[in-house]
Amino acid sequence: MNMNLLLSLCVGLGLSASCGFRVFLPMLAANVAAMSGWISPGEQFAWLSTWPAFFALLSATIAEIGGYYIPFVDNLLDTIATPAAVIAGTLLTTSVIEINNPVLHWGLGLMLGGGTAGIVQAGTGLLRLLSSKTTAGFGNPVVSTAENVASFSLSGLAIFLPFLAIVLVVLLVIWLLKRLMSLKKL
Description:
By secondary structure, the chain is mostly helical. It contains seven helices and no strands. It comes from Dyadobacter sediminis.
């Protein structure tokens, strides 16, 4: 495996995991990074480095973040965010990995990027459900703030320190899988 492929996988997986916390914020971060020349999306994803994408992603990010501070709307958003996070994670990973084989390219994007985003989203959805159940929704803004910070921070790490981001993603996924498995036993 060459270093460019490894680096692009780390960037993609870091951004994908961030999609599990917020769907649009990592896409906005990738857009800003692409427009600034910090990352290079593939030819098929040239739209990611355009001003129209910036304004669309900025609007979606603001709406998504705001929606998570409205009681019960946040739980509804989690229902929608689960498939959206998988799609966004797939797109972000696929946009940055450098593989010429389209089947392998999209397969890795879906399995690694979409899978990582889906696992993180499942964990955050369960956390919000638990918060709603135990605090009647009053604790959810705290959860939302933590998710916003996690998504923003992990997106930044994925772009600027991708190897550190991948270590954190692996630890997060292992921790979430253990939590999800322990809930299954109950």
